Amino acid sequence: MDERVMGRSGLRASVVGLGTWQLGADWGDVDDKEALAVLDAAAESGVTFFDTADVYGDGRSEQTIATFLRARPELDIVVATKMGRRIDQIPENYVLDNFRAWNDRSRRNLGVDRLDLVQLHCPPTPVYSSDEVFDALDTLVAEERIGRYGVSVETCEEALTAIARPGVASVQIILNPFRRKPLREVLPAAREAGVGIIARVPLASGLLSGKYTKDTVFAADDHRSYNRHGESFDQGETFSGVDYESGLEAAAEFAGLAPEGCTPAQLALRWIIQQPGVTTVIPGARSPEQARANAAAAALPDLSAETLTAIRDLYDRRIADQVESRW
To answer: Which residues, 6+ apart, have CB-to-CB distance to 178 below 8 Å?
Structure first.
């Protein structure tokens, strides 16, 4: 699989990575054996970038990755984790002492002395403007606790603020055919600054896969049940903030745009891969089959100009009014 350099950081990542939220919690049950099988299928398909967080299953996702990599020492996998969501979300909690404690825990979970890439996990907006926060992150690098740092953001404005920071290696942002706003300013700014872009929620929580209907029932512990209106965390993380009922109609139209030999999910991933400035896209997977199908999107031919135009038109007609003003 092709790899891209993550801007000025020098890190390399496969164009399709693996998001591992599903292997921790909030997506229904995935047992340990199946979780390890997902990691194995991704790696065997050429994925060299795993994204996780200390809060995914309260560390379960990090620990599962560690178990997998201990058994496969020949693999060269970059592991990016995130920190900050295991505590009250107030700017005052984003201080060096807490960073060190969170860092210690993730290093234990992952079984490493130094973390490849650590991202602030969608912190309160004022955090992005705090010199003290970024000085503290620079200290973690100087102490060799982390190799590089980045941010995971909710809004384009947060992304642009972070990109202006000279030490930021990457910005993780929601980007998919139903969340196009980052294309206008965020991706060009990142390219100019040499900042990597990690595209998350690429399938709009599965909506873009075309698998769901109005009768689909999600498990009670699946965020697609309990966070549709932002009850537990930012609504944009669930179905990309798109209303489920109207999103189903838009997703059905989107599925009809898939070229022969390309699933709707692969269409969404291929669209993201083609956007200038994207380093890697990190779909999740709950089965080895899903991991392999996601990785296969990297080898598909570029989408035609006609398909790209149709996707943009669909967004303008059905989605833009729901999401543009919020994120």
So the answer is: 204, 207, 208, 240, 242, 247, 250, 315, 319, 323
